[in-house]
User: Fold these one by one.
Assistant:
Number 1:
Amino acid sequence: MPKRNLRKRIWQARELYLLSLLPFIWLIIFKYVPMAGLQIAFRDYSFKAGIWGSEWVGLENFKNFISDRQFTRLLINTLRVSIYSTTIGSLIPVILALTINIMKPGFFKKAVQMVLYVPHFISVVILVGMLMQLINPIIGLYGTIAQALTGTRPGDILSIPSAFPHIYIWSGIWQNAGWSSIIYVAALANSDQQLHEAAQIDGATRLQRVWHIDIPTILPTFIILMIMDVGSIMDVGFEKVFLLQNSANLSYSQVLSTYVYEKSFGSGLPDFSFSTAAGLFNSVINVILITIVNKISKKVSDTSLW
Amino acid sequence: MKQKANKVRWSSNDQIFYTVVTVFLTLIALIVLYPIIYVVSCSFSSPDSIMSGKVILWPVDFTLDGYNAVLGYKKVWIGFRNSMFYTVVGTLINMFMTIICAYPVSRKDMPGRNILMMMYSFTMIFGAGMIPNYLLVRDLKMLNTVWAILIPGAIGVYNMIIMRTYFMSSIPGELLEASKMDGCGDTKFLVSVVLPLSKPILAVVSMYYIVAHWNAYFKAFMYLSDENLYPLQIFLKEILVASKLEAAMLDDVLVTSSASTSGLQYIVKYALIVVACLPMMIIFPFVQKHFVKGVMIGAVKG
């Protein structure tokens, strides 16, 4: 009986299947076919033979990647930028949300929130363009301030390798911290107001209420976002790093994704198999990390992605 | 009334705390706002006054030279035209695909919808990456065509999921029952009942797509090599980041301007930043409310 029932239910849903057909074809072609294309990480890809015809080489591309003399540096650069931005980048929105929540409702609060959201709508290219103008030693804000303080025009800080992570991360904070705080502001606004009232009657100060009510309220959201961040710890967005990169700061700014690009499009002799292996190495570590962190979080705090 | 009661109970400690918080947030807001004001002011100032550090808040030595050069530059217009095209057509394709993708998986009576959802969600954790995607677009003969911009990103899986969440939580089941009795098919139900009831989420998602299209850079950078197809962001990258400012761009302005070529180059960049941001900044006040709503719907899903 269940089987006949199922057949009937499928027949009744025929129009729904018809609707999902086009998206499903899209999903297969544009998401899963490229995954099949990942096999070139285990082949020696040649333009002539194509994805399915090139020769199998097993793990050779991965071995080459791990023994690449750039490998350690890439790993360190990637992790440096990513851990730095995950920690700072997830704490600052929390602080913003907690303080926004404390402010009394009104025009001023709305205005502050609006201002904090604006930079999110600026494109990466313009952000980098703005940044390069502002830190320009001759025409930018940085040069002007430095001259006022020291009397001389400073050098170009974008060519100082060790300055790269700070420029990358703090410009990202400027652009996205306000936006990322929305989710916490929403969680706080929906929290139980009775708790606050009860605490006030008991004489708790506002700071104590932040500590004992507000922070526990947003903790589950924070954990979920943290899990997702850890799951992309090896993904340092290609676009912004690539745009900020120059030959002088490469020793800090060459990360995995930009290296993949350089190996396949930046040189006269593209090595698609090597790049794909490097990219795959990256994604697999991400998936492993997100699974582990999700498991730990499920055990420790009952909060998990799946 | 309640507010008043609270006020009485505030200790002086709390009063200090509120003040500190307000001052702190005001400072943060000023820090966020200042670079934007500085860029706008510089775009209206003469190069000499910027270089000598006179521009602090407002434009000094007001000039429109930068804007004249930007608006007289053909590539900026090509870029604007193309970006408009990608934004409008791309968003229409996105919305069509996202709706017909999200609605069926929102229906609890469709067998197999969980498997389908898992297949979509999985792509959020694991993707094939740069090279396999490039090879696919190449093999589909889409390189250097508008399709490379419009089709591979036809569905944003995150957007699809929040739309599905909305359909599931906001469309009453009784409506479906009633229309089924009337012999109304699923497609007709979607078009004539579900969509009119879902205007808020349609607004949110289409705005996500519009902003993403306008600001997109990566796909065009990877897949296009014909200048006539470039969106604005690619030209911006050439001019702002790679500093490839063609001298011809400045010729017309130089005739009437007192500034030197190199000085003019600087303010042209400032002006270009302002011009390129303008469309987003004009719609920002209208759309930010929708965006905030979108974040909250997404958060419900977790």
Note: The mean pLDDT of chain B is 84.
Number 2:
Amino acid sequence: MIQRFFGTLVRHLDGPLLGLLTLLLLASTAVVFSAAGENSERLYSHLTNIGVALTAMLLVSHIPPQRLMQFAVPVYVVGVLLLLGVAMFGIVVNGSRRWLELGFTRIQPSELMRLAVPMMLAWYFHYKQESLNGRDYAVAALLLALPVGFIAKQPDLGTSLLITASGFYVLYLGGLSWKVIAGAAVAAGSALPLAWNYLLHDYQRQRVLTLIDPASDPLGAGYHIIQATIAVGSGGFAGKGWMMGTQTHLDFLPERSTDFIFAVFSEEFGLIGNLFLLLLYAAIIWRGLVLAAGATSLFGRLFSGAIVLTFFTYAFVNMGMVSGILPVVGVPLPLVSYGGTSMLTVLTGFGIVMSVATHKKLVKT
Amino acid sequence: MLRLINPKQEFLRYRRRMEIAGIIAGVLFLGLFSRFVWLQVSQFEHYHALAENNRISLVPAPPSRGVIYDRHSMVLAHNFSANTLEITPSKTGKLDETIDRLAEIVTIETGDRKRFKKLLAESKNFESIPIRNLLTAEEAARFAVHRYRFPGVEMKARQFRQYPFGAGFSHVVGYIGRIGEKDQERLIEAGLETNYKGTDHIGKLGLEASYEPWLHGRTGIEKVETDSGGRAVRILSRTPPVAGYNIYLHLDAKLQQVAEKVFGDYRGALVALDPRNGGVLALVSKPGFDPNLFVDGIDVATWRELNDSPDRPLINRALRGIYPPGSTIKPFMGLAGLELGVRKPGDTIADPGYFTLPGSSHRYRDWKKDGHGMVDLKRSITISCDTYYYGLAQQMGIERMAGFLSQFGFGKKSGVDLDGELSGLMPTPEWKKKRFKQPWWPGETVVAGIGQGYMLTTPMQLAVATMALANDGVIYKPQLIRAWRDPASGRMSLAAPQIMGRIKLTPNFLRLVKEAMVDVTLPGGTASIAGANTPYLFAGKTGTAQVIGIKQGARYIESQVQARHRDHALFIAFAPADDPKIVVAVMVENGGHGGSTAAPVARKVIDYWLLGKLPTVYAPPEAADVDEVEDNAPAEEPAPTAASVEPANLEAAQ
């Protein structure tokens, strides 16, 4: 009886993917514990986040893709309206207008758009699959540009770029012509100087400049990069050992349980640990892409494919930023950094991937 | 563009695009991995070193400064620990606001603020500067509770220097003060700056300055793990500091106090030496000042008050006060006359009350208007006859006089182990030519015979010269230090007496002069009252010096200026004359006459030293007793008064 209930409960989960995710979450727990300086409160809070996010994944995995598809338009519309609300009534924190005060809580609608945008685009391509033409790509691009524009204006360059990426993945997997991709790349390249001069804020420009020469501002913007690079480099081949990172435990690393947690991991586990982490991410992405490829509906394929590629992007951008090859944008290391929102979004995404992969039989019958 | 009807074809394209994406992702991960290899393998040494630099800092552990003891192990300078509040300006936001908020927790006086401002102006931004010293236990606890509110403010346990005897010993022991720019330059020049890391005080005056290298000790080093805020997390290794030497003096604190006390309200100086080894038993310069004021930065008002005071408390009169020796030169002159064969012991002169140079009508007057009658050498000392010495000097000539007297240390630094000693002046025609581009006049030799004119001595020089007499010609270097102890090994080392010179003197002549000096303190002598009823043989000589050294500003009110125009009273002495155990030179500023003000001071000091007799409260006689009136500078003597020679110029002149 109980076994059957349990079997029903987990039947939409993918075993290999769940196993890989669990491995990553275990590593995350160890690093967060170290980064938080053995603060058990932080540890409990992290475990709670994981529990909540895993539950969300479990629940989402039960939602059939057809059902999910019905949410695509309303969620997108609500999301865009909320972004409009932020632009008009949002509250400013740290110089950015990202939050909306609802009275009982504050929400950050851009977080919602991380899933809502690829879902909307996947829905659009699914809806138009019988009669897809060039104009549809343009409409899809507009659907992407609208929320991205709002978010970039807040300003939140990191999130807007990553949402652009997730939308682009849908377009790309949906068959966007290589010519257009190449043309967009050239256009983006030539627009870069313009964006540099007119679109970017001073602090964003500073971050890019600091990346090029961190020593130019060792106590200001460069401090994060310098200390993170020292942490990574001094980890060496085998690392300093769990809980033994001097950069971490002597307070030299800023944001060490959130955006810069990879520096902690690198310092304590070294190149070996990094290789393990990269392989784990690669395996998760591999398994995710396999599952996405097995999806029966276009919506399922596009949405879950975009989710997995976005997951890759987050991981790559974060590790690149910590190891000093990408500018500092506020991106957490997915499933490793401490923080409930990111954990929830990512695992919900994987819930969708699993749902899409496991509901195909039901669709066929 | 293109229209898709075939789902199968569409699916294949999707697969291909996914594969491409997967390959790109793989390539990017490889790129990341190569970056990790670069950082963690190729550049490991570099980043490892950077992380270690982050983590480890070398913190100097300052040594504790040596203690200064007197001959009976009484503490003259020592250290105690107390908490200070220190601010590092670079780590603090608004300084004034921080100090205001601090003032709500601990008492911060206006003086503290002023001193902080002064130190702030002198120091670098990243150095921590004390805002409040000597926190009480309650204040320390209160600050500890509120500490988180004050970034950049730290409570530090520090060693403080204290001088328990205060003003009476200020010119001997001196004081330490914060290391200033000039001190820093000197340390760098001497290559000592590393040994002074973590030390912020250095000897500025007195023994604290002259024995600085001994007292300071060796700075240790602590290898400390620090966090990003610079706070020490734990000590990794430690080279302990080595405390400075403890110094034991010949000086007797009680004798010093007695000497100080018997001066009463007079300004002046006293040097007491042990003739058997040159040990300095007492070295007084009155008035003194409280050295404790200087340790942590004296405030401007107090400093100005000390510096501008007409009493000049900051000047060590024993070493830097220069005065004509006056009649105290006579025993040495008499001995010179005998040794150089200019006079025989039995030679007498008839003193009409004045002396004239051949072919001149100018009269060099004796202090006694009608003269002393028949005077031989012994009597010339006892009654301090001027006429005898006018003639003697004239016959001897200035060159021979200078040659003989300089054997006793006149015109030379004594070499005492304190900084800043002046060498006085033993004039010669050669010197005068260099200094004033003028020839030497015969009259200048005449007045030099009674210790007036250009000749200048310090009280220390007078004491050293007197020691030479008492010691039958042997001169020891005056030394404050008797022994030192290295606290590391616990070994005590004795400072050996150093013989500076042996003057060849004929025993008979010497005995004659000594007897004359004993007679000075007996009835009929110029110090007979001060010398009354001594159970030991008390040898001495009185003297009077014209006012010098202290400038008279126009600001002083008339009566004060008058008081400061009075002559300085001098007295040199040793006792017991047959077996000298103590030599004393006393100078009482504006004291009038040696016999009435200076001699009693010496008598009381010697009484204490030889008999252990403590003086009753000293009340200096206001007016001089007629019986005791003695020599005066010749009133008509023209130009060559040394009073016009400033001490500072004097140094350059030689």
Note: Residues 52-77+179-249 of chain B form a domain with the Penicillin-binding protein 2a (Domain 2) fold (CATH 3.90.1310.10).
